[in-house]
Every structure is written in structure tokens, then in C-alpha cells.
Amino acid sequence: xxxxxxxxxxxxxxxxxxxxxxxxxxxxxxxxxxxxxxxxxxxxxxxxxxxxxxxxxxxxxxxxxxxxxxxxxxxxxxxxxxxxxxxxxxxxxxxxxxxxxxxxxxxxxxxxxxxxxxxxxxxxxxxxxxxxxxxxxxxxxxxxxxxxxxxxxxxxxxxxxxxxxxxxxxxxxxxxxxxxxxxxxxxxxxxxxxxxxxxxxxxxxxxxxxxxxxxxxxxxxxxxxxxxxxxxxxxxxxxxxxxxxxxxxxxxxxxxxxxxxxxxxxxxxxxxxxxxxxxxxxxxxxxxxxxxxxxxxxxxxxxxxxxxx
Amino acid sequence: xxxxxxxxxxxxxxxxxxxxxxxxxxxxxxxxxxxxxxxxxxxxxxxxxxxxxxxxxxxxxxxxxxxxxxxxxxxxxxxxxxxxxxxxxxxxxxxxxxxxxxxxxxxxxxxxxxxxxxxxxxxxxxxxxxxxxxxxxxxxxxxxxxxxxxxxxxxxxxxxxxxxxxxxxxxxxxxxxxxxxxxxxxxxxxxxxxxxxxxxxxxxxxxxxxxxxxxxxxxxxxxxxxxxxxxxxxxxxxxxxxxxxxxxxxxxxxxxxxxx
Lengths: 309, 260
Ligand SMILES: Cc1ncc(C[n+]2csc(CCOP(=O)(O)OP(=O)(O)O)c2C)c(N)n1
Hints:
Largest sheet of chain A: 7 strands, mixed
Number of strands of chain A: 14
Radius of gyration of chain B: 17 Å
Order of helices and strands of chain A: EHEHHEHEHHEHEHEEEEHEEHEHEHH
CATH topology of the largest domain in chain A: Rossmann fold
Number of domains of chain A: 2
Helix content of chain B: 25-40%
Largest sheet of chain B: 5 strands, parallel
Order of helices and strands of chain B: HHHEHHEHEHHEHEH
Bound molecules: thiamine diphosphate
Structural class of chain A: alpha/beta
Shape of chain A: globular
CATH class of chain B: Alpha Beta
Largest interface: A-B, 29 and 31 residues
CATH superfamily of the largest domain in chain A: Thiamin diphosphate (ThDP)-binding fold, Pyr/PP domains
Strand content of chain A: 15-25%
Radius of gyration of chain A: 19 Å
Number of domains of chain B: 1
Strand order of the largest sheet of chain A: 3-2-4-5-7-6-12
Number of helices of chain B: 10
Distance between the termini of chain B: 16 Å
CATH architecture of chain B: 3-Layer(aba) Sandwich
CATH superfamily of chain B: Thiamin diphosphate (ThDP)-binding fold, Pyr/PP domains
Oligomer: heterodimer
């Protein structure tokens, strides 16, 4: 078990080593998110601008204009939300090589409660032209997402979490924009998940298998661009897709998958995610359970839909 | 150096032809932009992407017609193109879009963002040991945006030297006079308190502008340029309603006749 933020920092340090254009901009949360490690290693390429997220996004835009690859990070609620107009109008409109690290994504910041749980960040970043949105599921994949972002032309949003999650990938498995990962192949239904919900989806698949229902599990780490080949494959094999995300159902993974499928593929799509509500305090596990983000919830939805047919 | 009369004529004609645009805040910028592009900035219109060129971030992006006229007159693109302001595919977008037109160093249009972008750009250029400087023009109404003061705080804190800010203090914003909507004064005092060197000048007097720009300081410099919104056109001067209004044929004729 390891938090995805640890993978983010590992990736950041390696990126800084590999490419001197990498700079880090922080908003007074470097001890909390771990980017202080970058400051220790590369003090000349680290800027803490204080509690001023709009300014962070603006400086990052300017640094990108000067040819650098700035990674700015703070809690995802603020990184994506507080500076959204800057992200839209300056960073995306100019298609700048800014990387935005959305730390403490989803319910992973449990006890801090609703104000700090980013449950809308995927929706508001993926809607922007030129933006790539990556939501890795474990620490190794997060490290790879950071490294992959070095080769992406234009802005990238990387969402990661604070709590420990199961390790799913080895260190060398790369992240490719537009590519999801088929982790399990089954003919009765498919689960498409992101982030912390991927390992939960695998648990659900195991539980379903015991009941005689075989499901595919996809890790849609690249929410934008979406892996449409993989979605096409799933729809060729199964008629039911359940999406699973630690995010509002509206506009997130369910939104992205539904948008593509409704235009291109037959079949039903059922969401597991945050259903139009704010989070609350509790341990991440408790909050996830409270909000219905569990393997049991996925199992229930799959079973019900499969039985109906 | 081009005359301010020519640039003002361009602005009025462009906005009239386009059928929309912002005359007031474009006309107040004219002498400042002419000074920058003919006297202050190290640029090469033949080579608009030259790495070590000085940059301009027009944070009040609605002043685009003034900038487009100056860029065209300075040779970045053909003056004939000015007629195509705000037309599909022309590159002369309603607010500056850097990928669409040579000579633009930044896209702007959402007020309050340009200072931070200019600061990040200046920081990056300094890290690359480039001699280039970054100029940033703000509106006085724009100073109501909180993000401006985030950047105003960080630029002196990071000891940034290669950025020079100009405030186009024309005292009028979109709806009304700035001090009626939400006062931003006393400006010099505020900027000084944030750690800046402040120079004030008459933003329509080239010699006085030059004097302000030659201010030596070991802090970042902001030039507060006293200007008139709608400068040069009697019926537009100081009038909020001319912020975003288009002169019709008659008004255009009258306005062009007034220019000296
Ligand atoms: C964030 C944002 N809010 C509102 C506007 C709409 N707007 C365009 S210009 C303007 C007034 C600007 O006043 P000022 O900065 O004084 O500029 P000037 O008077 O020089 O035109 C407003 C409110 C905008 N472009 N951006």
C-alpha cells in the first residue's frame, strides 16, 4: 500500500533530473503534498508563491511561455477550482506546457471534510480544450503519469490522492495518453474505473466471479483523451458498463464514457460515484463507504443490471 | 516613430468596420504603446519569435485595437489587415490570441491575469539569463481583481528586476468611474506598500513617458500613467458609455475630424 502522492513526488524528482526545464510552483502546501522534496533537491527551480492559487497558475503560464515545463500543485480543489479561469483562458487557450498536480483528489483527504475533498476537478478540467487529464490508480502509475507528461504537448492535469492505495502496477509500466488498461477480461459486464476505484473494482470483479458473473475491469487512467478503442472493445463484448470513480457522477468518468458511448456504441452505462452531494469528515474509507464508493455497491449494480436482462 | 493621430485613426476605423470593440480603453493606450514599440522595447518585427526580444503582456486585452495598429505600423504584418478586426480567420481576434497573429507575446482577455503571467515569463527569462524584459499594461479598473495583488506581492518578494508595469490610469471602467464603482486609489501608495518603485507620468506626453521609463530603482518599477479614456475624441473622453460602443458613420467622421 502506498499513496499516489508519493508516486507524484518520485516522478517529479526524476522529471527534474531528466529535464532542466522542469520547475515546480507551490502554494504553501509543499510540506503537506511533499513537493518540498523537489525544493530540497532543486532549490533554484522551486517557487513557493504562498496561498495564491491564481498567481501560481499565472506564473506557470508565464514560465511555460519562457520555455520551461512548470508543475504547479496544491490540493486539487484549489489547483483546479480556484484557478479555473486562469487554467482556461491563459493556460489552455495558449496551449501551454503547464502540468497541474491536483493533490488530495477525491475523498482521500477524509477528515478535512467537504471543503477539501475535490469531487469536481475531473469535470472542470476535462471540459477544457487542449487539456490532457490523467487519473492514476497507484503510486507507480502516478510516477509514470508525471514522466509521461514531459512528452505531452500542451497542458496536463494529474489527479492523485493522499491515502494509501493498493499497488497494481510495476514501476516500469508506462502511462500513455489515450490508453486505458484492461486488467481483467470477462463477458458478462465491464467495470471502467479510475484512481482509487480501480483496486475496488478489481475486488468487485472477484466477488462477482464467485457468483458466476465474469466482468472486465478497465483502468481508464487517461480520461482525456479517452481510450475509445478499449471502450469499443468492451461494447463489442459486453452490453453493460459500470463506471466507478471517486468524483461526482456528473461530468467525470461516467460523463466521459457516456458521451462517447451514447454516440457510438449500444449498451447501458451505470454509474458508481458521488451522486450530487458534498463529502464529509471521516476516514477516507468511512467517507467512501458513506458515499457508496465500495466494491459491494459495484457488485450490486452489476448484479441487478445483469439479472434484469 | 508613428504619430498618435495615425494610430487613433486606425483604432476608430477598425472598430467602426468591425461593428464591435472597445474604443475608450484603446484610445487611452496610444502614446504608451507607441513609446514602447518605437523607443523602449528591443524587438525585431522581421523576427517576431526572437528569443531575447522584450515582451509585452497587454493584460487589459480589450485594448487590442491599439496594439494591433501599433504592431501593423511597426511592420509585424500588413496595415491592410487592420480592416479585418474581429473577422473570422483574420487573426485579429477580439482579444489578443498569440497563436493567431505575429508580434503577440501573450493571449489575454480575462482581466487580472496578465501581471502574473508577465511575472512568470520574466522569471523564466531571468533563469535562462536572457537580457529580455517583460512589460505589462494594466487597466486601473482591472486593479480591482484580487489576483493582481497576489502578483504585486510576489514580484518584489522574488526580487524580480526584468519586469516593468504600466497602469493605464484613465479613471473609468466599464460601468462608470472607477472611484464610483470601487475605488482603487491611492494607487502610488498601494504599490509602494507592496514593495514597488513608483513613477508617475502624463500617459499622453511622450517626453514625460520617457522620463518615467528612465526611472532607476532597485525594486520592480510600476509606472502610473495618467490618461484619458477615449483620449482625443471630445464626445468619447471620460465617458464610460464609450468603453465598448461603436461609432456609427457620422460619429466616425466627426471623430476623425477632431484628431490632431
Ligand atoms: C475577469 C473579467 N471580468 C470582466 C471583464 C469585462 N470587462 C472588460 S473591460 C472591463 C473594464 C476594464 O476597466 P479598466 O481596467 O479600467 O480598463 P480601461 O478603462 O482602460 O478600458 C470589464 C469589466 C473582463 N474582460 N474580465
